[in-house]
Amino acid sequence: MKKKSLIIGGLLVVGIGVGIFVILKSSGAGGGDDEGGAAADNVPTVVTVQTGVLKRMTLHNYVNGYGTVEAAPATENEPAAGGALAASGAGVVAKVNVTAGQHVEKGDVLVELNSATATFEYAQAEFERQKKLFEQQNASQKSLQDAAAQLASLEIVAPVSGTVTRLNAKIGQAIDTSTVVAEVVDLNRLAISAKISAADAGDLKVGDEVEISSPSPVTASLSVVSPGVDPNDGTISVWATLPADSGLKPGQFLPLKIVTAVHTNCLAAPKEGVVTDEDGNSVIALVKGDEATQVPVQIGLREDSWVEVTATNLNENDSVVTVGAYGLPEKTKIRLANSPEDKNSATNSAEAK
Known about the structure:
Layout (H helix, E strand, L loop, with lengths): L1 H25 L4 H11 L4 E4 L1 E3 L1 E17 L10 E4 L5 E6 L6 E2 L4 E6 L5 H16 L5 H12 L2 E3 L4 E6 L6 E2 L6 E4 L4 E8 L11 E4 L5 E8 L9 E7 L11 E18 L4 E2 L5 E7 L2 E6 L1 E6 L2 E5 L8 E3 L9 E6 L3 H13 L1
Parallel strand pairs: 1-23
Antiparallel strand pairs: 2-22, 3-12, 3-16, 4-11, 5-7, 5-10, 6-9, 7-8, 9-11, 12-15, 13-14, 13-16, 14-15, 16-21, 17-18, 18-19, 19-23, 20-21
Helix pairs in contact: 3-4
């Protein structure tokens, strides 16, 4: 019995000793294990990233919109370049003298009408008679003016020299003052009109460059910027006079960009590399060797995939992190995603498969 107790006691002592050793081991007791843990903690984190470079370039700020090509409106120096034409009174179409697409001169009679009071032929003959009598001093000026007014109410004439772009008249057709009978436009004097949101139009001014997207892009400049806002849709009306050789046609509806600012020779970063830090500041991660450091920057114009950046000690061709820049620590070790190690790793992986 004594021998059995001694054996059990011995086993208990051994068990307690093993337990203490395990506890000490797991808690990091012992010089060798401490050194190994500290060494592991001190290994720097390496982040795999892609990089780009800063470049010198010209950047633009645009206001985007859509515009309709139409006859240029009247200015202080020139009348309107054409437009829709209607009769000054009700009547019936007696004769159509032109076809769509035909060139006409200012004053040409496009359409002749008959009215309830007179035919076009009668009104024309009466005007000629009154004109001759007036020249002979046998008719009053009022009689001549009345005859001219009667004739004018029965004819639709070209207001400018140009092209008949629309014709809506057939012999026997009844029309009134609301009927658009024809449209004549000087195709060398066109404009594009657009409505721009008032929220985007604050910087617009006469002379701003306008880039019009079409099969052959056209450049013009703003001629008019309305001073008022349309209360129905919150927009401001603008238009730009087109060059005579624009090749555009009345009625085309096209996208356009109005240039409101141009910064030349500015330093720009790839847009993926400009991020916001925890404090809400714009930063880029500048690469020096195998390390990336956050640098606060002031941002300016944005165009396509580039952002204007300003900060001290930035230079053209400086390398910056692009893919992987978001959430990057202020200063960290980096490894390029397209480095030779990655290529070798990918090759070895492919061979292993």
